[in-house]
Design a protein that fits this description.
This protein has 454 residues and is an all-alpha fold. The relative contact order is 0.18. The protein has one domain. The radius of gyration is 23 Å and the shape is globular. It holds the Pfam family FA_desaturase.
Length: 454
């Protein structure tokens, strides 16, 4: 997944040290779930499926009120950081302090702005209202406000939900395979398919070929968080690699879209055109620096939260990826993690976790429930999550990941390097060629496409 952001060193084919396979390591088993979508639906209280336009719209108001209060606070109090109101030891520090205050505003504004992004996302899933018109109008307006081609992305995102973690059907966060990274073919004398036994020389080869240096991982993550989202929209970076080069969300003829969806793509393009024109006009009226501080930096934080959250929801060495022969809709939905955004067990972690969950409408914390039924509105998703988790626990299935933090993203990007070219259920291997899980099929013959939930 990260290969699109950095070049790779060519792998050497000759061994440089001990070629004997290491002793097989004990790796936790992953029992491939056979639960059906009907069983999962049955666990969810009926009222969780109810959608209210007025209740949903109250969160739009909430997000804009938060943004308005933050902007008013910034415009009112940041200019007062001057010698007349504040005493600082050096004159140059006033400019530094004002700059730091604006950066704090940008960070804080990015959270409710991302909350608006989530509202548009719910409109695309028809979780905002029972009215298709209301979903389309509110979704287009809100997503255009944060630079998202609403209908175009709605279409590709729907395909992602239908085939989550399907190796040839998913639309985003599709893992790189061994061959795609130019690594040597699987050598059964020096390693095994499961990734529990790898010779020392292969571990060294993988580590060098995959640039397993901490600074490289930090740079990969930084680029990923800053520009990963627009690059995905523009050229399908991190997307389904079966699509032609430069597949994007702006041209109706792209393989992402069917012919009858042409007008939806053009309407999305119109929203982006108005968005860009509004930014340029604002720069002409207010100046670049003010627009950069007030809108563009919070916009970058919105993109950052989007990539951080979705990357960690769908990427982890403990999450499976399925070949078509093993894929079912429930397996795809359960191949994601719920994570507490910027949370943790400490007192500070609980506070930051609550703030982030509130301002981003729990999208990170209730993600599995959202994949099981995307029409559940976020204000019911918490209860649905608890009910689903209770049912999953009966089958020994747990979908809670570590808190979604920058350090966790760095861990994941270092542990998730490639998957094998073969196998019905595949897990990421790290820079030593080792996997964190071994798939086990318990009861064959279960098939559930999820079509009944469309």
């Amino acid at each position: 997944m990260t290969s699109s952001l950095t070049s790779r060193k060519p792998a050497r084919s000759k061994p440089t040290s001990d070629t004997r396979p290491s002793a097989e390591e004990e790796v936790p088993k992953f029992y491939v779930p056979n639960i059906t979508i009907k069983e999962l639906y049955a666990a969810i209280p009926n009222h969780c499926f109810e959608r209210s336009f007025f209740r949903s719209f109250s969160y739009v108001i909430f997000d804009f009120v938060c943004l308005g209060l933050l902007l008013w606070t910034a415009l009112t109090y940041i200019p007062k950081i001057n010698p007349q109101n504040v005493t600082l030891p050096h004159p140059a520090l006033y400019k530094v302090a004002r700059g730091a205050a604006w950066l704090l505003y940008d960070f804080c504004a990015g959270l409710p702005a991302f909350g608006l992004w989530i509202i548009g996302h719910e409109c695309g899933h028809h979780a905002f209202s029972t009215s298709k018109t209301a979903n389309s109008v509110v979704g287009w307006l809100v997503h255009s406000f944060v630079g998202v081609p609403y209908f175009s992305w709605k279409i590709s995102h729907g395909k992602h939900h239908a085939q989550t973690s399907h190796l040839t059907g998913d639309q985003v966060f599709v893992p790189n395979t061994r061959s795609e990274l130019g690594l040597p073919p699987l050598d059964h004398e020096r390693e095994n398919l499961e990734g529990t036994k790898v010779s020392a020389d292969l571990q060294e080869l993988f580590s060098e070929a995959l640039d397993d240096a901490p600074i490289v991982s930090v740079l990969q993550l930084t680029v990923h968080l800053l520009v990963g989202w627009p690059i995905y929209l523009i050229k399908n970076a991190m997307g389904q690699r079966s699509y032609p080069k430069w597949t994007n969300h702006f041209v109706p003829k792209m393989p992402l879209f069917a012919p009858h969806q042409r007008n939806q793509v053009l309407m999305s393009d119109l929203g982006i055109f108005i968005w860009i024109a509004s930014i340029l006009y604002s720069i002409k009226v207010f100046g670049f620096l003010k627009v950069f501080r007030v809108y563009l930096l919070p916009y970058l934080w919105v993109n950052h939260w989007l990539v951080l959250i979705t990357f960690l929801q769908h990427t982890d060495p403990a999450l499976p990826h399925y070949q078509a022969s093993a894929f079912t809709f429930p397996r795809g939905a359960l191949s994601t993690f719920d994570r507490e955004l910027m949370g943790g067990p400490s007192f500070i972690g609980k506070i930051t976790g609550w703030i982030c969950a509130t301002t981003t409408h729990g999208i990170c914390e209730t993600h599995v429930a959202h994949h099981i039924c995307s029409k559940i509105p976020h204000y019911h998703a918490w209860e649905a999550r608890d009910a689903i988790n209770k049912r999953l626990a009966q089958d020994g299935i747990y979908v809670q990941g570590n808190p979604a933090t920058w350090s966790e993203a760095l861990r994941v990007i270092r542990e998730c390097k490639f998957i094998e070219d073969e196998g019905e259920v595949r897990f990421y291997k790290n820079a030593q060629g080792k996997a964190a899980r071994v798939p086990v099929f318990v009861a064959e013959g279960v098939s559930d496409s999820g079509i009944d939930m469309q």
